[in-house]
Structures are given as structure tokens and as C-alpha cells.
Design a protein that fits this description.
Elements lengths: L5 H11 L13 H104 L5 H4 L4 H17 L2 H32 L2 H11 L5 H12 L9 H19 L3 H26 L6 H22 L8 H17 L2 H23 L12 H12 L17 H21 L5 H30 L13 H27 L4 H42 L19 H20 L3 H22 L6 H19 L4 H14 L9 H5 L9 H8 L8 H7 L1
Helix pairs in contact: 4-5, 5-6, 5-7, 8-9, 8-10, 9-10, 9-11, 10-11, 12-14, 12-15, 14-15, 14-16, 15-16, 15-17, 16-17, 16-18, 17-18, 17-19, 18-20, 19-21, 20-21
Length: 699
């Protein structure tokens, strides 16, 4: 049995043999085990011989059956060849008979066709004679149930009458034409009645008869007119039109031989009559009085019309249904789309101006004229070069004149304008129109609102020597930063898809870059002047609170304070400004501004310490002050600022170190790379500097 493993088989045989499985124990009997193995091998050999004989017998039987099968296959092949030969003979015989039958049929048709034409011509001549005599006696003309046959006859007689000379056959031509017209009217009336009764089969019969009459188009018009009766009863004319076309599409193929033409004519009638009238009523009401409602209605109606067109694309309307439906839509909206962008820009301009004015009115603020050209340009260039406040400072009372609500409203109006522009603009004009809308956004959001707020904020920054100045420009920075993110998001989400594959893309990107750079210049200028004011406030605190006796106390042994009052107030002020800067900016801008403030803060403290003389205890107090300043500098989280204050702290050690250790301290890790003049300037601040011993040790 599979799987067969020889080792396991031998092991099992050994275990079954008495005395063969103890592996050397007392009961182990090798002779008995050998005897068992020999007997088992003999049994296996006998079994192998028996199986081999069985295999040989089966092989012989298989070879015999294979020969018999091959013989049977050969006999079948011979039978198949005989059958195939008989089939070919039968096929040739059938082809011969078919050729004879076709030939006979052609001969019969050649004889029968002229005969039928002659019989038909004879009938037409008979009917023509009745018109000549002026009395229609044939049953086909008098029996109303045979209107189909009568129509066929009169249609043929009408064609014949066209070829007859008028002078000799004017009367009979007139009678035939009159009968032609009467039958045509009867058929149309019958079609109308059948349609009202809902008899599709009768409508199909009458339409097939009328197909060869001149009034067939009138039959189609009647069908289209009656289809629309009661179809437009709800307020939604577009949904009604879609349902009507869906119903007619299922029916028209059962009635007319050219259903696509009839359905296309129905759709054309709906567009040119129903939809065009509805669109005109909805738009003309607001076209001159309410631009906002006019644009909303135009967008809504155009969208619903194009959606209806998409539904109608499912139907068979002929070869180029896309062009057909596009022309129908264009015929309705062309007079409104030609000047759409002018209306859009006009509305956007007035709406944006109103939003801004309403905001400034709510603040009881009269906008100042920033102006351009002449003196203003000169002032702007001077201010950018010198960073000096030109003109009187304006007290804004903490008002930034930036409103997120105003910005959201302006962006929402522009977003809707972009959506309308995408839908209503011709593809060739889309990038140009989108650029005009973007330009309006730049004018009102960036120039009229943000730039004005920056200008007002700059004018509201006090001079650096002002006392107790309120610094609100960082609030302007914070709000302007938020607005820039919103502005950039709308640029990417709504403008880019409209201009991404046009030359206007580079123009828009450049315009955006220019306006942002212009804003950044003013933001940088305002931040720089704000930092100057911060440093000015620190100077005022130090000048008012720091006393000369702080660092040269009268009683060296009775100093109870850890650091001076001026240090406490300056550190408190600095921490507030650091927190304000972090809240007002984001990203790398925070580190950049904090680095600049930290460097200026360090310079101020460095220059401030240079103004005093220091006793031993005063020097210790100065070190404590600088340690507090350094702790404050850690809040900046700027490595350079902390390094500067570490170095300043090391310099202050020169104020208290023993004269013998001055050279060792100056060659330390933090002071070794400093200019010798800087080290000397700090040593000179010691009250004992002029002693010969100290001068000698430092020289």
C-alpha cells in the first residue's frame, strides 16, 4: 500500500516476530528473527512471481484488444469515405435541380411581370375613365372600408395626371387632385381618431398608406401635437419632457417606418416651443432687474437642459444626435450666453463691493484712499528701502480690518461664478473668462481687503520709541495668513481645472505670485517694524527699572534679591511676545521671526550691560539676570539665540572671576573664539579694573 517505506515495513515485521523487538534484551532471539526474515522473503518472491504472471497476461490481452480496435477504426474510415462520396453526388444533383428551378422561375417571372403590369394598367385606365366621365362607380371609391385600396389607386392616378397636358386634361386633373386631397384628409382624420382611441395597429396601417402622400408630414405633426396634450401639467417641464420622450420612444417604432425622424421632430418641437418659452419666461423677468437671480436661473436652466439632453442621447435620433441636440440647446440659450461673462463680471464686481462696504460700515470705518502713482509711489519705494514710517501713525484701536466672514463670502461668490463659468462658457472662451473672474477676486479680496488692511496695519504701527505701545500688526499677520490659505485652496480647487491646459495657466500663476510677493513685502516690513517696537518697549522697561546701584550696591554683604526688577519685567514682556508670535504665524515663519527677535533681544541686553560698572556682588547679580534672560531665550526654541545667551552668560563670568583666573576663563570653550576686544570690553566694566593687578593679569 502507498505510501510504502521499506524501513518502517521491516521495523513492523521485527516487532511482530516473538523475540525480535527487544533490541538486545533478554528476550531477544536473533535466530528466530533471521528465520522469520527468510520465510518472509520467500513469501514476497512467490507473491512477486504471481503478480508478474498477472501483468504479462494483462499486457497480452491489451495488445489483442488494440489490434481489434485498430481494425474496427479502419473499417469505419472506409464506410465514412463511401458515405462522403455519396453525399458529394447528392449535393451535385441538388445543385443541378436548383439551377433548373431558378431558370424556370426567371422564365415564369419574365412572362408574369408584363402580364401583371398590363392588368394593373388596365385597372388604372378603367378608374381614369370614371374620372373622365365624372361619375365614380367602382366599389373601391364608394366603400369607406376600402379606403386603403382607394388611396393606393388615387396616389398612382395623381402621379399619372402630373404627366398629362393641362389644356386637354385640366378637368380630370382637377377631379383627381380633389379626390387625392379628400382621401388624404380622411386618412389623417382616421389616424387622429385611432390615436385618441389608442389603436396602435390602425395608426400603423394609416401611417403606412400616408407615407406616399404629400400630407405624411402633416400626419407626423398631428401625432406630435396629440402626444403633448396633457403631458406638461406639472411644474417641472424638464421632467415632463423626459417622461414624454420615454413613452413616445417605446411607441413610435410600432407606428412609423422612420421612428428616429419622428422622435427627433418631437424633441425639436419640445425644445423650440415648450422649453424655449419656459426659459424666456424665467430669464426675462430678472434679466435687467436682478442680476443675481438671473445668473442663478440661467445656470439652473442650462444645467437642467443639458441633463435632459444627456437622457435623450439614449434614444435613436439618427446619425449625429450629439450635434442635433447641441444645436437645439444653442438655439434656446445663444442670446443669453453671448453676453453671459459681462453680466457675471458686472454682478461679481457690484456684489463684492457691497460685501466690503457693508463690512466697513459695520465698523463705522471710512476707507482711506491708499492711492497710486506720484508721491505715493515715492513713499512706497522709500519705505521699502528704509523701513521708516512715512506719514502720521493711525490708531486702529486694535482693529485689523480683516474679516474671515467677508473673505468666505467673497470666495463663495467667486466659487459660484467659477461653476457658472465652467457650465455656461464656450470651451474656447473658458480659460479667458475664468481669468477675468480670478482677476476680480484678486482686486477685491487681495487688493481692496487684504492689502488695505496691511496698509492700515502698517500705518497703525507706532514708532519704536513710543511708550506702552499696543502692537496689533501680528493679529493682521495671523488673519492674513489664514486668508492666504483659503485663497490658495480656491485657486487650486476651482480655478486650476478650468485653465490647466491653456496658456492662461502661466498668466494666472504669475498674477498669483506677484500679489503674494507684494503682500509678503508688506508683511515683512510690518513684522520688522513690530520687532523694532518690541525692542523699543524693552528699552523703556530697562531705562525705567534698571538702576546703577543694582550692579554696584552700597552694602555688598546685604543683597537679598536673586535678579533685578528690570530683568523680571523684560522677561515677562518677552514671553508674552513669543507666545503672540507663535499664535500669529505657522511653519518656518515662526522660527524666522523668533530668530530675528532673539538676535535683537540679545543685542539689546548686550549693549544694556555695557552701560554699567560692576562690583563683585553686582557682577553676581548681572550673572543671575543673564541666566534669567537665557531661561527666557529657551522659550524661543532657536539654537542660535540660546547660543548667543550662553556666550553672554560666559562673558558675565568675567565680571566676578578672580584676577588670577582671567586668562584661564578667557581661553575656555565658550570664549576662546571671541574677539579679544569684546573680552576686554567686559573686563573693563569691573570696578577693580584700574587696579594694577587686574590690568596686569589681563594684558
Amino acid at each position: 500500500q502507498e505510501p510504502f517505506v521499506a524501513d518502517e515495513y521491516i521495523e513492523r515485521l521485527a516487532w511482530r516476530t516473538p523475540g525480535g523487538g527487544s533490541r538486545g534484551g533478554e528476550a531477544f532471539d536473533p535466530k528466530r528473527l533471521l528465520e522469520e526474515f527468510v520465510n518472509h522473503i520467500q513469501e514476497l518472491q512467490v507473491m512477486d512471481e504471481r503478480i508478474q504472471r498477472k501483468v504479462e497476461k494483462l499486457e497480452q490481452q491489451c495488445q489483442k484488444e488494440a489490434k481489434e480496435f485498430a481494425k474496427k477504426v479502419q473499417e469505419l474510415q472506409k464506410s465514412n469515405q463511401v458515405a462522403f462520396q455519396h453525399f458529394q453526388e447528392l449535393d451535385e444533383h441538388i445543385s443541378y435541380v436548383a439551377t433548373k428551378v431558378c431558370h424556370l422561375g426567371d422564365q415564369l417571372e419574365g412572362v408574369n411581370t408584363p402580364r401583371q403590369r398590363a392588368v394593373e394598367a388596365q385597372k388604372l385606365m378603367k378608374y381614369f375613365n370614371e374620372f373622365l366621365d365624372g361619375e365614380l362607380k367602382s366599389d373601391v371609391f364608394t366603400n369607406s372600408e376600402k379606403i386603403k385600396e382607394a388611396a393606393d389607386i388615387i396616389q398612382k392616378l395623381h402621379l399619372i395626371a402630373q404627366e398629362l397636358p393641362f389644356d386637354r386634361f385640366s378637368e380630370v386633373k382637377s377631379k383627381i387632385a380633389s379626390k387625392y386631397h379628400d382621401l388624404e384628409c380622411q386618412l389623417i382624420q382616421e389616424f387622429t381618431s385611432a390615436q385618441r382611441r389608442g389603436e396602435i395597429s390602425r395608426m400603423r396601417e394609416v401611417a403606412a398608406v400616408l407615407l406616399h402622400f404629400k400630407g405624411y408630414s402633416h400626419c407626423v405633426d398631428v401625432y406630435i401635437k396629440q402626444c403633448q396634450e396633457g403631458a406638461f401639467l406639472r411644474n417641472d417641464v424638464f421632467e415632463d419632457a423626459a417622461i414624454l420622450c420615454q413613452r413616445v420612444n417605446k411607441q413610435v417604432g410600432e407606428i412609423f417606418s422612420n421612428p428616429e425622424t419622428v422622435l427627433a421632430k418631437l424633441i425639436q418641437n419640445i425644445f423650440e416651443v415648450k422649453l424655449q418659452g419656459y426659459v424666456k419666461d424665467q430669464l426675462e423677468e430678472h434679466r435687467k432687474s436682478d442680476a443675481e437671480q438671473y445668473l442663478k436661473n440661467l445656470y439652473d436652466l442650462y444645467t437642467r437642459t443639458t441633463n435632459l439632453s444627456s437622457k435623450l442621447m439614449e434614444f435613436n435620433l439618427g446619425t449625429d444626435k450629439q450635434t442635433f441636440l447641441s444645436k437645439l440647446i444653442k438655439s434656446i440659450f445663444i442670446s443669453y450666453l453671448e453676453n453671459y461673462i459681462e453680466v457675471e463680471i458686472g454682478y461679481l464686481k457690484s456684489r463684492s463691493a457691497m460685501i466690503l462696504q457693508r463690512y466697513y460700515d459695520s465698523k463705522n470705518h471710512q476707507k482711506r484712499s491708499i492711492g497710486t502713482g506720484g508721491i505715493q509711489d515715492l513713499k512706497e519705494r522709500l519705505r521699502q528701502r528704509t523701513n521708516l514710517p512715512l506719514g502720521p501713525s493711525i490708531d486702529t484701536h486694535g482693529e485689523t480690518f480683516l474679516s474671515q466672514e467677508v473673505v468666505v463670502n467673497l470666495l463663495q461668490e467667486t466659487k459660484q461664478a467659477f461653476e457658472r463659468c465652467h457650465r455656461l462658457s464656450d470651451p474656447s472662451d473658458l480659460p479667458k473668462n475664468a481669468f477675468r473672474i480670478f482677476s476680480m477676486l484678486v482686486d477685491f479680496l487681495c487688493t481692496e481687503h487684504i492689502d488695505y488692511a496691511l496698509e492700515t496695519g502698517l500705518a497703525g504701527i507706532p514708532s519704536s520709541d513710543s511708550k506702552n505701545a499696543n502692537l496689533y500688526f501680528l493679529d493682521v499677520v495671523h488673519q492674513a495668513n489664514t486668508i492666504f490659505h483659503l485663497f490658495d485652496k480656491q485657486f487650486n480647487d476651482h480655478l486650476m481645472p478650468l485653465i490647466s491646459s491653456s496658456p492662461k495657466l502661466s498668466e494666472c500663476l504669475q498674477k498669483k505670485k506677484d500679489i503674494i510677493e507684494q503682500m509678503e513685502v508688506k508683511l515683512d516690513m510690518g513684522i520688522d517694524r513690530t520687532l523694532n517696537c518690541m525692542i523699543g518697549q524693552m528699552k523703556h522697561i530697562l531705562a525705567a527699572e534698571q538702576k546703577k546701584t543694582d550692579f554696584k550696591p552700597e552694602d555688598e554683604n546685604n543683597v537679598l534679591i536673586q535678579y533685578t526688577n528690570a530683568c523680571v519685567k523684560v522677561c515677562g514682556y518677552v514671553r508674552k511676545q513669543v507666545e503672540k508670535i507663535r499664535n500669529s504665524m505657522d511653519g518656518k515663519n515662526v522660527d524666522t521671526v523668533l530668530m530675528e527677535l532673539g538676535v535683537r533681544f540679545h543685542r539689546l541686553i548686550y549693549e544694556h550691560l555695557q552701560q554699567y560698572s560692576y562690583s563683585c556682588m553686582g557682577g553676581m547679580l548681572a550673572i543671575c539676570d543673564v541666566a534669567e534672560y537665557r531661561k527666557c531665550a529657551k522659550d524661543f526654541k532657536i539654537a542660535l539665540v540660546l547660543q548667543l545667551f550662553d556666550t553672554l552668560h560666559a562673558l558675565c563670568n568675567l565680571l566676578v572671576v578672580a584676577p588670577d583666573n582671567l586668562k584661564q576663563v578667557c581661553s575656555g570653550e565658550q570664549l576662546a573664539n571671541l574677539d579679544k576686544n569684546i573680552l576686554h570690553s567686559f573686563v573693563q566694566l569691573r570696578v577693580d579694573y584700574r587696579s594694577a593687578r587686574l590690568a596686569r593679569h589681563f594684558s
